[in-house]
Design brief:
binds guanosine-5'-triphosphate; seven-stranded mixed beta sheet; 4 domains; 859 residues; Rossmann fold; mainly alpha
């Protein structure tokens, strides 16, 4: 297949193309097409360039076409001699290895350009010498040894321009003697060489090359061919023999075996173009510098080409895509191989160019490629970083869940996460780059440390919060209940409760803290803070309870005052010693005040209770406050021997609380006293049971008689109503409150007017309604007042101050009007007994019986 391609390329290359036209313009585009079609560019250094120069119409093209199988234009022999080749043409030799490019130059001394126009001749000669490995010099046999030979000016020109090449490559000059005569070549060649030497000697040379021999610059070879026109058969035969010399021409010992400074085939065209440009500008042609320049340009081109290939490399694009989504396993290996492929391609293409240039450009290309791919590497590392942190998080959680200590878990998980990250980094680097991942490793370490720190903080907070919650649960309710039952041992009980609970909870915390490996000092400090927290729970509870001291005192008072020793609700029958009970209840409330006045952690005995009892209970605050304030032990804001921070209620506050307490409990006591009185009264209204029995026995006959006679019954009933009405009007119970005799006197004095009033009222009731309205219009305000219900008299231990004050307020007008006849509107003298009975209805609500039942309900 490759052979077929090479043959096709050779066939395509055999078609001659113009490299430089007759006007001296370089035909870059067509030349480039030729290079590609002929497959010259990929030959590296394995190619040779052959040029032919000589007089016009000396059979150059004919020779080349026969020698190399090319198709340079030849002159038609039958039309006469004229110029056919203009400028420089180029073709690839067919069937000659290595790849040989042959150039047919415009003939010298052509009449078309005139005698004086030798500029192009010189320029094309110099160009051929600068780029060719072998230069064929076509000359007529009969010119050898002649003074006016046509090739002499040509040789002169060749040698002259040769001096302009700073460090010329060693070129093989193959003199082809055309139309050889019978004189054998052995005789002709020395003559020719002598002529050449003479010309070389006559050419002016720069100082540096004054004594340089011709052989330093040229490898002179001579061959002779018979006339093509006369002895074509022989000509063709010898041309075939000559062709053999071009096989492996560049190998050592070959025609161009001594050549130096070859430009790689891929740079040949560019190099030729640049050389022609310099020659045209008539500048000095520095071939070594030119070589470097060509190498620079070509290596740049190759590097750019390679870089472009990498950017569109499907494997690279896939890898770049993959790494955006997540870390890629074997990233370094994959990327390294991609980079390697492209660098190798560069090396392969640039291998024949100047080494220094090639290496410099290689480095540039490599750094460009590394710059291109490094973000992908960084991306891979950032994925690995995230993965390492995630691994650390999960690992730490699992380790902690398995019950391992925090510090040990962090240590182990950090180690495994960092080792995995390190491995990932090592897997991501490529051999072409010395990418440093120590910084990102440091970042991962910091990430892990920060996370561990935050987890430690949250775990510690969780631990302390848990311990606090346990302490709170263990202390709050028991302490509250201890304060509820406050007494002598309250504070010692609280202290022992506190000690018991802290000793049960805190060692667990200490043990848990040891897993954090933060030193015993830290653990002790934490535990000590929790101990303080426990104390603060107790103290806050004490403060809270102290802030409600008045309520607690009232509760305590009510409990003691309203319950007997068996905790049964007390019934005020009149036999109780209210004073003593009240004192006992107040004393209990005072003890409560004493307990809640200060915090007693050390349970040191103090005088607070004594001071309170002597000052408040035994003495009277109200009476002493004004007169003996100077000697009042409660006229202070601090307790003796008690630290201010342990003071819950200051002495002065105690005093004021006590004052309020007294005033708020006074009513309860008054109620109790009233209840007792009411009870006594209710018990004294009926005659003793024995009297009732006597009355029933002795008056049995009369009772029976009354029951049997309806008139008596009626009269008895009317009489009862009348007496009842009188009793109500006169308020008999009230009249007899102060004793029997004063009662009889008062009742007898009021009996008659009252009877009169009663009769008047009855009479008024029998009058028509209109008359009644004119004579006795009741005061408008009294009617609604009479409808108002009496205030409730129930007082619970939780009664608010407003409720207590309400109970203190004087009775309502209805109550007053009913209980005090002097304030009520006078009854009409004509009032009927029925009306009187109706009017008595509201009065029953406040009768002593009712009052006494309401009073019972106070407790
Ligand atoms: N006498 C003689 N004539 C030849 C020989 N080879 C070719 N010719 C003739 O010379 C004439 C010119 O041939 P070309 O090959 O075109 O010569 P050329 O040197 O390429 O001509 P230019 O390109 O114009 O410089 C043709 O008519 C050929 O037939 C030869 O060996 N001897």
């Amino acid at each position: 297949m490759a052979e077929v391609d090479a043959a096709a390329a050779a066939a395509a290359g055999a078609q001659a193309v113009q490299l430089i036209d007759g006007e001296g313009e370089f035909a870059g585009e067509s030349a480039e097409r030729f290079m590609t079609a002929a497959g010259v560019a990929g030959c590296g250094l394995s190619y040779a360039v052959v040029s032919i120069m000589g007089p016009q119409s000396s059979g150059k093209s004919t020779l080349l076409n026969l020698l190399f199988g090319t198709n340079f234009r030849e002159m038609d022999a039958f039309r006469g001699r004229s110029q056919t080749t203009k400028g420089i043409w180029m073709a690839r030799c067919v069937g000659v290895e290595p790849c040989t490019v042959v150039m047919d130059l415009e003939g010298t001394d052509g009449r078309e350009r005139g005698e004086d126009d030798t500029a192009f001749e010189k320029q094309s000669s110099l160009f051929a010498l600068a780029i060719s490995d072998i230069v064929l010099i076509n000359m007529w046999c009969h010119d050898i040894g002649r003074e006016q030979a046509a090739n002499k000016p040509l040789l002169k020109t060749v040698f002259q321009v040769m001096m302009r090449l700073f460090s010329p490559r060693k070129t093989t000059l193959l003199f082809v003697i055309r139309d050889k005569t019978r004189t054998p070549l052995e005789h002709l060649e020395p003559v020719l060489r002598e002529d050449i030497q003479k010309i070389w000697n006559s050419v002016p040379k720069p100082e540096a090359h004054k004594d340089t021999p011709l052989s330093e610059f040229f490898n002179v070879q001579v061959t002779a061919l018979p006339s093509f026109e006369e002895k074509e058969e022989q000509f063709r035969e010898q041309v075939q023999q000559l062709r053999q010399r071009f096989a492996n021409s560049i190998a050592p010992g070959g025609l161009a075996g001594d050549r130096r400074g070859v430009v790689p085939a891929s740079g040949f065209l560019f190099s030729s173009q640049q050389i022609w440009k310099i020659i045209r500008e008539n500048k000095d042609l520095d071939l070594p510098a030119h070589k470097v320049m060509v190498a620079t340009v070509r290596c740049d081109e190759i590097a750019n080409e390679r870089f472009g290939c990498l950017t569109s490399d499907a494997e690279w694009l896939d890898l770049e895509n993959d790494v955006q989504a997540g870390s890629v396993l074997g990233f370094g290996k994959k990327l390294g191989s991609i980079v390697e492929v492209h660098m190798e391609e560069y090396d392969k293409e640039a291998v024949y160019f100047d080494e220094a240039v090639r290496k410099a450009k290689r480095q540039l290309l490599e750094s460009r490629i590394l710059n291109l791919v490094q973000p992908a590497f960084q991306k891979n590392l950032s994925h690995l970083r995230t993965k390492a942190l995630e691994k650390f998080k999960t690992g730490l959680n699992q380790s902690l869940e398995s019950g391992k200590g925090f510090a040990a878990s962090v240590r182990e998980t950090t180690e495994s996460s960092l080792s995995e990250f390190n491995q990932g980094c090592a897997d991501s680097v490529i051999k072409q780059a010395d990418w440093d991942y120590s910084k990102i490793l440091e970042k991962v370490r910091r990430d892990i440390e920060d996370h561990a720190l935050s987890v430690r903080e949250s775990k510690l907070t969780e631990l302390t919060n848990h311990a606090k919650e346990k302490l709170r649960k263990a202390l709050v309710e028991p302490v509250e209940s201890l304060f509820d039952a406050a007494g002598q041992t309250t504070w010692s009980s609280i202290e022992s409760l506190y000690k018991r609970e802290t000793q049960a909870i805190l060692p667990e915390v200490f043990k848990a803290l040891s897993g954090f490996e933060m030193g015993s000092e830290f653990s002790e400090e934490m535990v000590s803070k929790l101990r303080d927290y426990g104390q603060s729970i107790v103290e806050n509870k004490a403060k809270e309870e102290a802030s409600k001291i008045l309520m607690h005192m009232k509760e305590r008072f009510t409990v003691v005052f309203s319950h007997d020793k068996d905790s049964m609700p007390r019934t005020w029958t009149g036999k109780e010693d209210v004073r003593a009970i009240a004192k006992e209840a107040r004393s209990a409330a005072l003890k409560l005040l004493s307990v809640l006045a200060v915090i007693r952690w050390d349970d040191k005995p103090d005088r607070i209770e004594n001071i309170l009892i002597t000052t408040l209970l035994d003495g009277s605050v109200a009476s002493k406050s004004s007169s003996a304030s100077s000697g009042d032990p409660l006229a202070s804001t601090s307790w003796e021997e008690v630290h201010p921070k342990h003071t819950l209620i200051t002495p002065a506050q105690c005093k004021s609380v006590w004052k309020q307490f007294q005033s708020e409990t006074e009513f309860t006591i008054t109620q109790a006293v009233s209840t007792q009185q009411a009870h006594r009264r209710s018990n004294g209204r009926l005659p003793p049971p024995w009297a009732l029995v006597a009355m029933a026995v002795l008056g049995f006959d009369e009772i029976m008689m009354l029951l049997r006679n309806p008139i008596y019954m009626f009269l008895l009933f009317v009489g009862y109503l009348l007496v009842r009405a009188l009793a109500v009007q006169l308020d008999i119970g009230r009249e007899f409150q102060n004793g029997m005799v004063p009662g009889i006197l008062s009742v007898s004095a009021k009996l008659l007017p009252t009877l009169q009033n009663l009769l008047n009222k009855v009479a008024t009731d029998q009058q028509p309604p209109q008359q009644q309205g004119q004579q006795h219009r009741p005061p408008a305000a009294e009617a609604p007042e009479a409808q108002q219900p009496p205030p409730p008299l129930l007082l619970s231990p939780k009664s608010s101050m407003s409720e207590l004050r309400r109970l203190h307020t004087p009775p309502s007008p209805v109550r007053r009007s009913v209980s005090s006849p002097s304030h009520s509107s006078p009854p009409s003298p004509k009032a009927s007994p029925r009306k009187v009975a109706e009017e008595q209805k509201p009065r029953r609500a406040v009768e002593p019986d009712n009052e006494s039942s309401s009073a019972y309900s106070i407790v």
